[in-house]
Amino acid sequence: MILLGYRFIEIPYVCVPRVAGETKTAPNFTALIRRGSKYLVTLVRLQGVRLKKIMGIQIA
């Protein structure tokens, strides 16, 4: 995104204390896989943007 000229701003948020035994990541394995796959897809897409920029391909 930075390569395309976008700017980022930081949006603050409040961290709510967790109850003992409560996970931050995901309540179960299925939710963990679902969330993790979204991160992987985003990384692959951003790498594609980076490679296109390096190779001089016009990004629409």
Quickly list its features.
mainly alpha; elongated
Separate helix tally: 1
- The class by helix and strand makeup works out as mainly alpha
Q: Average the pLDDT over all residues and give the rounded result.
A: 80
Give a count of the beta strands, DSSP E runs of length 2 or more: 0
SSE ordering: H
Share of helical residues: 40-55%
**Terminal Cα span:** 13 Å
What percentage of amino acids are in beta strands?
Answer: under 5%
- Which shape, going by the Cα principal axes? elongated
Radius of gyration: 17 Å
Q: What does the largest sheet look like?
A: none
The unreliable regions are none
Task: Walk me through this protein's architecture.
With 60 residues, the protein is mainly α. The chain has a domain at 27-60. The protein is 45% helix and 0% strand. It contains one helix and no strands. The protein has one helix at residues 29-55. The longest helix has 27 residues, at 29-55. The radius of gyration is 17 Å and the shape is elongated. The mean pLDDT is 80.
